[in-house]
Amino acid sequence: MWLLLPLALGIDSGPPAACLRQPPRRPPVPAAFRFPAPAAGDTMWSPLDTGTAYFADLVGIQFTDSATAVQVCAVFVKFEATLVGGLPTAHEYVLRLPARPMSWDSWEARLDSLNAQSGVEYASPYSWKAAAPGFRAK
Predict the structure, then answer these.
(1) What is the rounded CA–CA span in Å between residue 81 and residue 93?
(2) DSSP letter string over 100-115?
(3) Between vectors from CA 1 to CA 72 and to CA 42, what angle results, nearest 5°?
(4) Per the domain annotation, does 29 fall within a domain?
């Protein structure tokens, strides 16, 4: 089901079609998103909180109201992001980023880099609660 959702929304891989037009347009925030069931290879574990896992390849991103279409599209291109959904009430895009980071530090550095882009209000990870691998609560 999760793999079909981007197709059902008309979302392809790579920058949204609105970014490929001349002049580019700011893509609309998709009206739906369903989080995938987390898998071991799709998560990053916080070294400070063993009860919280983060999706390694999904981020939520909101752009400032004054962000131009060029600034928005530049983020998609620079980070090779695919638009996989949205949270319209929050005006937030859900992006899938390629090349999952190999460490917590590289994962945080990628978020910091996203947050530093022109026009970005914030970029944030998506988390879910679970016990860390090998952790057993008594």
Answers:
(1) 11
(2) --SSHHHHHHHHHHHH
(3) 65
(4) no
pLDDT at 113: 96
Cα(58)–Cα(127) distance, integer angstroms:
10
| Residue 84 forms part of a structural domain | yes
Q: What is the pLDDT of residues 54-112, one digit of tens each?
A: 888 889 999 999 999 999 999 999 999 989 899 888 899 999 888 676 788 888 899 99
Q: At 60, which CATH number?
A: 3.30.70.80
Q: Single out the residue of 54, 56, 55, 63 nearest to residue 16, CA to CA.
A: 63
Are 56 and 100 in contact by the 8 Å Cβ rule? The answer is yes
Backbone angles phi, psi at 104, to 5 degrees: -60, -40
User: 64 is in which domain, residue-wise?
Assistant: 40-129
Q: Which of 122, 53, 128 is nearest to 92 (CA)?
A: 122
> What is the domain count for the chain?
1
56 located within any domain: yes
Entry pTM:
0.77
111 within a domain of the structure (yes/no): yes
* Structural contact between residues 61 and 126, judged by C-beta atoms closer than 8 angstroms: no
